[in-house]
Amino acid sequence: MAKAGKKSGKGARAVSEKRLFVDLEVCAKCPECVTKCDYFYHPANKGLISVRERAAMSVVCRRCENPVCISACTRDALEKDVNGVLRRYNTRCVGCKSCSIVCPFGTLIPEVIPYAVSVCDYCIGSVHGDGKPVCVGTCPLNAIRFEEVEEDISKNNYAVDEHLVVHALPWKKEAVTK
After folding, report:
1. Which of 39, 41, 81, 164 has the highest CB neighbour number within 10 Å of its CB?
2. DSSP alpha helices (H): ranges in the chain?
3. pLDDT tens for residues 119-170?
């Protein structure tokens, strides 16, 4: 991906830099994903599956205090990071989907917990003639875009990392009143 602006300061992003934007609310309406992926090692759309998994774990997961999904995993493939975000270690995961079965909130969708997985590289440095990754042009519902977008919580747009912004309705813990 060509950077249109310069970084100002350590860790700062150029405002005019394009990112992959995935609208999970629209994406969930598709009965079967037909979006193409240009990832060299898994051209059968495996990259987008990893993006959906990261997005769900970052935005939709309810971050339970004692997550049953972690204790259900027989291979220690799930852990919470320092921010409480669930992470799956692909090299440990055997694809048994136990975590998906025990999640009381349906966050861990079985279809996005594949055994064989490749991680999306956001087509950094390899956008095509139209200036967009292949997934953007082949998503029939326009749930994936490549544009200049910043995190905007008021619009439910969350930056998952420096190359990915996700639109999703997050779960918010309500205060219990007695």
Report:
1. 39
2. 24-27, 46-55, 68-72, 98-102, 134-138
3. 788 887 777 677 888 889 889 999 999 999 999 999 999 999 899 999 998 7
